[in-house]
Amino acid sequence: MKSYTGKILRVDLSRGEIAEEETREEWLGKYYGQKGLGFRYLLEDIDPTIDPLSPDNEFFTSDGTWPFGDWMLEAGMIPTGNFQTGISPTYERLRSELKDTFKKGSKACVSCPLACGNYIEIDGISFEGPEYESLNMTGGNCQISDLKSIVQFNRSIDDLGLDSISIGNVIAFVMEMTERGIYDFGIRFGDAENYLKLPEKIAHRQGIGTELAEGVRFLSEKYGGKDFAMQVKGLEIPSYDPRGAWGMGLAYATSDRGACHQRAFTPTPEVIMNEIEPYTFEGKARLVKDLQDYNAVKFSIGICDFWGLDLDLLAKLVNMSTGSNLDSEELTKAGERIYNLGRIFN
């Protein structure tokens, strides 16, 4: 696959014309997509001094993280049925329905041209999202295939302040526990009716929700099922099955806060860019450590995850804003220092 879909859609609002073109493949390894690729096209197409309100100006938008599911589907990395398999029979349909039928608009952070957030409306339910992780962890991982139920569920957990990755894991885990006959939690895979009742019970610790609120590790230690309790250090695993990118497994295992894909996201070089063989541990220790150190300093500076800035540019930004004289090597050492501090605590 190329970019997110392999194509760029140009919409000329002044002339009422639409044209489709192939993504510039030689740019993908340099700019990765989303904001970086959008800026590269802008630089190619228009004068940076153009009047922002000119009809010749351009703007870019995307479909947020939904397309990540396309890459993960191709790599067999979409958790399904509490990670029993990495192949989802429903994700592509659900994502297509959201994008083509129910998406009503986009949302951007302040001053960002990307607008990677998605506003949807389905049967009177208006909602921002769900993005890839939420769509799959509360959908396919629980084997819920009805889009309205998934959207209603995500709207509920958003209002209640619950995390979609963790709650998707928790519910999928108790579904499997019930189906295996280890302990009957009163809910099975695909049971949308009882699934929709759980967010309120978990948030307010009512009935079964009292213990579900403690997470997968707690439940597995009390009732069994540790061999399929998908967590590291008590944090539930996100929607990137490490069996399809072995570096991700190492990243989960060595993360300071458990199973987190933000500490080192190895599917980019392993799957998306095809820069390193995914089904081996060869070279993965260095890959994971470099990404952990890089992200530690990048996020400490406060740079958006979708900005693929190299360390030299990060150093320039720090120097311009602080008056210091750091180089990329010193930033890397700072990232290592930050990461080690986190490991001391956890």
UniProtKB/TrEMBL annotation:
Cofactor: [4Fe-4S] cluster; tungstopterin
InterPro entries per the UniProt record, alphabetical: Ald_Fedxn_OxRdtase_dom2, Ald_Fedxn_OxRdtase_dom3, Ald_Fedxn_OxRdtase_N, Ald_Fedxn_OxRdtase_N_sf, OxRdtase_Ald_Fedxn_C, Tungsten_al_ferr_oxy-like_C, W-dependent_AOR
One Pfam family linked to the record: AFOR_C
Keyword vocabulary terms for this entry: 4Fe-4S, Iron, Iron-sulfur, Metal-binding, Oxidoreductase
Residue ranges occupied by any Aldehyde ferredoxin oxidoreductase N-terminal domain in the UniProt entry: 4-255
One example GO MF annotation: metal ion binding
Family: Belongs to the AOR/FOR family.
Protein name stated in the entry: Aldehyde ferredoxin oxidoreductase N-terminal domain-containing protein
Native source organism of the sequence: marine sediment metagenome
